[in-house]
UniProtKB/TrEMBL annotation:
Residue intervals of the Mannose-1-phosphate guanyltransferase C-terminal domain: 271-375
The protein's name: Bifunctional protein GlmU
Occurrences of domain Nucleotidyl transferase (ranges): 2-235
Coiled coil, from the record: none
UniProt entry tagged with the keyword Disulfide bond: no
Enzyme Commission no: 2.3.1.157, 2.7.7.23
């Protein structure tokens, strides 16, 4: 049995982080999202993996290569036009000989979940199996109508209160080759894509057995920037302590840390773990790293900096006297001295963030900023909760940012002042 990982899309809801990389290559807990799925397939016994790539595919191919260093064999198929999940799956059909498992690349699954799929397929007659998971609000997902374990219908994003159940399609499938016959007869949806759920409906209408399997194992959807922080927290909490760098005298650590090679934590630094620090990092002196902070490789954190529950990507500098709260900061950024990235609204209401041009209630009270790669801030600049700054942008000294900044933009504050001599 082969595994198919769908990783051709950009992930527009993750912008500006995905302007320079595919969403599945965003790192949490020290690994790209996609690597967790590859390892889940491998640990479930599936060693032959097809990756359907497209947007910025070089980042994926350069990282995983032929898969040998991860204990698998990888073949790549390029989906030149992103025309939906059915179209993506169909692009791999010439490499499929029999049954196969499909995972969306932007979810994270437990290997036992994949094992459960295989066991169910081998023990019961079926053409397709969908992994299902239960959520409180199913209105943003594909909701299944199910009798016993046989799926009768899939309803995409039902209106609140109109869903037939709270069981949703988790984006994890096991198919036999008859799915390709259904894909051949699948028409474009209203949004102009070939949806695999429409192919499954064709199978249902032809009385083929499509089963659902409810998951009680780990299943994590990563679609929006603040969800990166949730996933990062989960994996850092599960990791074993591993200290390979240097810790100077006078450092205080409560809880576990992961400290990479050639990294140093300087005297006076105070850490509340779990905290992840990559390779080649320089922390302190006198810095404060709070729970669930993730620092990528070659990150510098200056004197008297406080970082809370944030992801700081490779090559970024957070300079002295700065505060970063509940934020995602891209690669090769320079956060100047005295920069404050706030994470709590003055009125204590939920933070809102623009996703694809529309304000979205994130459902959480604490959320800072999202910076794309190569962002520079000036000294004593401030960022309100929920703002995003595009790639290659710069914010001048003393500026207060309260709305999103596009990419390749310079923001300066206009200041007027008068010089008065003491003797006047």
């Amino acid at each position: 049995m082969k595994g198919v990982l769908l990783t051709a899309g950009e992930g527009t809801r993750m912008r500006p982080l995905t302007l320079t990389r595919p969403k599945t290559m965003l790192q949490v807990g020290g690994k790209p999202i996609l690597q967790y799925n590859l390892e889940a397939l491998r640990d479930a016994g599936i060693k032959d993996i097809i990756m359907v790539v497209g947007y910025k595919k070089e980042a994926i191919e350069d990282y995983f290569e032929d898969g040998s260093s991860f204990g698998v064999n990888i073949d790549y198929i390029t989906q030149e036009k992103r025309l939906g999940t059915a179209h993506a799956i169909n692009s791999a059909r010439d490499m499929i000989d029999d049954e196969f498992i499909v995972l969306n690349g932007d979810i994270i699954v437990d290997p036992e979940l994949i094992v459960d799929l295989i066991v169910k397929y081998e023990s019961e007659e079926t053409s397709s199996i969908l992994m299902l998971t239960e959520v409180e609000d199913p209105s943003s997902f594909g909701v299944v109508e199910i009798e016993n374990d046989i799926i009768k219908n899939i309803i995409e994003k039902p209106a609140p209160g109109e869903a037939p159940s709270n069981l949703i399609n988790a984006g994890i499938y096991l198919f036999d080759k008859t799915i390709f016959d259904a894909i051949d007869r699948t028409e474009k949806s209203e949004r102009g894509e070939y949806e695999i759920t429409d192919s499954l409906k064709i199978q249902m209408n032809e009385n083929k057995i499509v089963r659902g399997l409810k998951s009680n194992n780990k299943w994590i959807d990563v679609g929006r920037p603040w969800e990166l922080l949730n996933v990062n927290e989960h994996f850092i909490s599960e990791m074993e302590e591993d200290i390979q760098g240097e810790i100077e005298e006078g450092v205080t650590i409560h809880g576990k840390i992961i400290l990479g090679k050639n990294s140093i934590i300087r005297s006076g630094t105070y850490i509340l773990g779990p905290v992840f620090i990559g390779e080649g990092c320089d922390i302190g002196p006198n810095s404060y790293l709070r729970k669930y902070t993730y620092l990528g490789n070659n990150v510098n954190v200056g004197n008297a900096v406080e970082i809370k529950n944030s992801i700081i990507m490779d090559g970024t500098n957070v300079n002295h006297l700065s505060y970063v709260g509940d934020s995602v900061i891209g690669a090769n950024c320079n956060v100047a001295a005295g920069t404050n990235i706030a994470n709590l609204r003055f009125d204590n209401k939920n933070v809102k963030m623009k996703i694809k041009g529309e304000k979205f209630d994130c459902g959480i009270r604490k959320l800072g900023a999202v910076f794309g790669d190569n962002v520079k801030t000036g000294i004593n600049s401030s960022f309100n909760p929920g703002v995003k700054v595009g790639i290659n942008s710069a914010v001048g000294s003393g500026t207060i940012i309260y709305e999103d900044i596009p990419s390749n933009t310079l923001v300066l504050v206009k200041q007027e002042y008068k010089i008065i001599k003491y003797d006047e």
